[in-house]
Amino acid sequence: xxxxxxxxxxxxxxxxxxxxxxxxxxxxxxxxxxxxxxxxxxxxxxxxxxxxxxxxxxxxxxxxxxxxxxxxxxxxxxxxxxxxxxxxxxxxxxxxxxxxxxxxxxxxxxxxxxxxxxxxxxxxxxxxxxxxxxxxxxxxxxxxxxxxxxxxxxxxxxxxxxxxxxxxxxxxxxxxxxxxxxxxxxxxxxxxxxxxxxxxxxxxxxxxxxxxxxxxxxxxxxxxxxxxxxxxxxxxxxx
Length: 239
Fold this sequence. Notes:
By secondary structure, the protein is α/β, with parallel strands linked by helices.
């Protein structure tokens, strides 16, 4: 039997994405305020915005995460490690790295795993997520990339950056979930813009959602819940 998702449950599954390269300070402020207003689990911000986000969100309960090797994944492992260490020093507590996509496509599995492991070790126990960029991959590559993510020791395997076209699909999330053990979680990101899509991704096995549409998703859920409450109240008044 399906479990009815509460607003709190969905909010705590959301990493609110604030990653557009052309965002101004005012636009970043707006997005940080949306995250705080709706009580999402975290924001995922541009690395240079980490200190500002940590300060602005202090006391709200919203965590700050960031991206590593974003959006192409082609920086060296040493550069990714340096980026993570700086991000951690600035106050980020979760790290979404982009896999070496060309390495995955070339079947350079050892190279890919070593790259992931270097970042995971630098995270030193903090949550690490590996972005596959599924729009570039076929099913075999998605499954293999998911397994390599687990071999590298990451906490999550993630679908997409949101900057390469395409995005998360139910089929890809299900495949990723089936390709790793329960020790690894799945994050659906890219194109999750409404409640229906969010619920579908969670049902397919995702435990985290990367989205810039947090207010839309949670607003739709609140409206649905409010409508249900109103209906129940009307029904009970007839007894």
